[in-house]
């Protein structure tokens, strides 16, 4: 039986590493080339090359009065709904709206994303865009529903250290704020993260293997099963957003409580 080829999609790749010759830059270049070769349209936000401003401040909201207390959520919502955000934020929001999938490429620094990527998230996913009263509820078919999302991360540590008994904890748990707190909160469908371990001294053959594995994940960007996080509106949670008793998968605990049975 012949395999069907997914139709052309639009993909935003957000890259966050200061060194153009880094492993992350190489993975970004590989992803862009691989996706375009498959017939997809790709845009790239290279945050360091763009000299992206990472901090949220009153300059993000040009109509905000200087003598008025800055309440970020309210100010961002008013500016978003009025089309009056700073131009750099508006441009990135347009890329996200344009996309069918978002890929985040970054090194794991102190168990999180680099500050510049966190700043991209803080500034771009404003109230009224990624969440808020004018859009569907979070943790559901939310504001950015219909989009896939993939984290591609590099780590200096070995994979075993990010396992269920590893000293760093499971990689899925470390990345939970992005997978669940950004992607699923806004309605995007997160895939299992892709990781390259031992990144500090990855040999050439290791890089070749990483590209091959990454290519397979990119090929499944629109066909692989996303992480089946529970929906806030699916009847699994009470009014206080607490999981109802007896809903969990037998034996599940911690963050796994918020994942539905697979299959």
Explained architecture:
This protein is an alpha/beta fold. The chain has two domains: 10-227, Rossmann fold, CATH 3.40.50.360; 230-263, no CATH class. It is 29% helix and 12% strand. Strands 1, 2, 3, 4, 5 and 6 form a six-stranded parallel β-sheet that branches. α4 (115-124) links the parallel β3 and β4. α1 (23-37) crosses α7. The longest helix has 16 residues, at 204-219. The relative contact order is 0.13.
Low-confidence stretches: none
If you compute it from the alpha carbons, what radius of gyration comes out, rounded to the nearest whole angstrom? 19 Å
- Indicate how many domains the architecture comprises: 2
The number of distinct helices, counting runs of at least 4 residues, comes to 7
Q: What is the name of the CATH architecture of the largest domain? A: 3-Layer(aba) Sandwich
Shape: globular
Major beta-sheet overview: 6 strands, parallel
CATH homologous superfamily label of the largest domain? Flavodoxin domain
Number of distinct beta strands: 6
The CATH C-level class name of the largest domain: Alpha Beta
| Rounded average pLDDT | 92
Q: What characteristics describe this protein?
A:
alpha/beta, single chain, 6-stranded parallel beta sheet, 7 helices, 263 residues, 2 domains, Rossmann fold
Provide a brief overview of the structure:
The chain has 263 residues and is of the alpha/beta class.
List the helices and strands and how they pair.
Blueprint: E1 10-15, H1 23-37, E2 41-46, H2 72-82, H3 87-98, E3 101-107, H4 115-124, E4 148-154, H5 171-174, H6 176-184, E5 189-190, E6 194-196, H7 204-219
Parallel strand pairs: 1-2, 1-3, 3-4, 4-5, 4-6
Helix pairs in contact: 1-7
């Amino acid at each position: 039986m012949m395999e069907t080829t997914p139709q052309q999609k639009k993909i935003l790749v957000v890259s966050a590493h200061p060194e153009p010759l880094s492993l992350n830059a190489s993975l970004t270049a590989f992803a862009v080339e691989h996706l375009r070769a498959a017939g997809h349209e790709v845009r790239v936000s290279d945050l360091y090359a763009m000299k992206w401003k990472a901090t949220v401040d009153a300059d993000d909201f040009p109509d905000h009065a200087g003598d008025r207390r800055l309440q970020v959520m309210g100010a961002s919502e008013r500016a978003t709904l009025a089309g009056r955000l700073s131009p750099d934020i508006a441009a990135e929001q347009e890329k996200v709206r344009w996309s069918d999938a978002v890929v985040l490429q970054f090194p794991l620094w102190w168990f999180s994303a680099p500050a510049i990527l966190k700043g991209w998230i803080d500034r771009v996913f404003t109230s009224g865009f990624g969440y808020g009263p004018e859009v569907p509820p979070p943790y559901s078919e939310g504001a950015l529903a219909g989009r896939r999302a993939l984290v591609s991360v590099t780590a200096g540590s070995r994979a075993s250290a990010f396992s269920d008994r590893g000293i760093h904890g499971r990689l899925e748990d470390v990345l939970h704020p992005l997978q669940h707190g950004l992607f699923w909160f806004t309605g995007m469908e997160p895939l299992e993260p892709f990781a390259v371990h031992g990144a500090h001294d990855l040999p050439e053959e290791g890089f070749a293997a990483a590209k091959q594995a990454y290519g397979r994940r990119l090929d499944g960007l629109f066909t692989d099963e996303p992480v089946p996080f529970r929906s806030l509106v699916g009847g699994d949670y009470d009014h206080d957003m607490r999981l109802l008793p007896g809903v969990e998968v037998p034996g599940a605990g911690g963050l796994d409580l918020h994942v539905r049975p697979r299959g």
